Amino acid sequence: MSQRVANFFSDLRRRQQLLLPVWFEDGQVIILDQTRLPFQEHHLALRHVNEVAVAIKAMQIRGSGAIALAGAWGLYLAALTNQSTPEQIKEAGDLLKKTRPTAVNLQKTIDEITRELEPFQGEALTRTVEDRVLAIVQRQLDFEIRLGHFGAQVIGDGDTILTHCHSGALAGAGYGGRALSVLRAAVEQGKRVKVIASETRPYLQGARITAWELGQLGIPVTLITDNMSGFVLQRGMADLILVGSDRVAANGDLANKVGTYLLALAARDNVVPFYTATSSHTIDLSTPSGKEIAVEMRDPREVLLFNGAPIAPESTGAIYPSFDITPAELISGIITERGVLRPPYREKLAWLGLERETR
Ligand code: RI2
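Above: the input record for the complex with 1,5-di-O-phosphono-alpha-D-ribofuranose. Below: its predicted structure, written as tokens.
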């Protein structure tokens, strides 16, 4: 590993309160195993890109930003392998892209690192991959801080924010990911906020990870089961809804953790603003609408078992779509690193997405 990578992380660590989901140390990708939170802070040391792919698939690292960065460091591992070639790095990228198909950040990050590597070999190849990975990590962190700043405008002093799944530092680059960057920035601006987190069956990202991360930040959090959101909104217990995003289609339709669509419907019925926090990297202009977004279908056993124990008779079937699609017309605003977009979205997203590609 170059001294530059070591310096990069020691500099990141010096910054206050960064919760890093993934980093690189002593020739290994280190991830905080999110399946063990909140009861154990256990780290995995991964030495091969295949191990990184397994960890992403197994949700040991998850969240659209964090899996993109894990994938990036996985490619760096591949590039460090003796006599690796651009073709081998591309193959490693193809393997990583298959792990979680819906979160476009992972796909775009892999493409960005593996594009036009053909002219490079040996140390120049490793160095090129390293340059790209470090630039991506830094950019993602900058995006989080900037989108947090813009998003904090929609948060009022004393607001209670309802969130679903976990869209925080451990799902991103370390500041606050998407949704929790907005809350973190609001608190830094002196606003008092409270959070209601839905548990997010079946992986319980809300109960286990959002609650843990907000605890680290000192932000009060109240847990509800997923089926309590309608009650909470009808009774006026939340001022706004704020979720992350795995992919935003060209028309503004949003793919996010399954259950988000129901929340958005209940938000409209109760006139509660519904926001997603995202970045230009998550806008997918090549996907016209939510209908064309590939939704990851996970193993039904993840629904039929809870902590390894069955919760239904053996003969019961199950499905597990990991995401659902919230139509653009249910979204009050899309928070990005360039500002808060208001409907109609199509032209604004096109500008932001294209502008990013030419930056
Ligand atoms: P970002 C999660 O999926 C959810 O969809 C969640 O909303 C998103 O990733 C994280 O939000 P999973 O990886 O901050 O836990 O990455 O299945 O937008």
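Notes for the reader.
The longest helix spans residues 122-151.
DSSP finds twelve helices and 16 strands in the chain.
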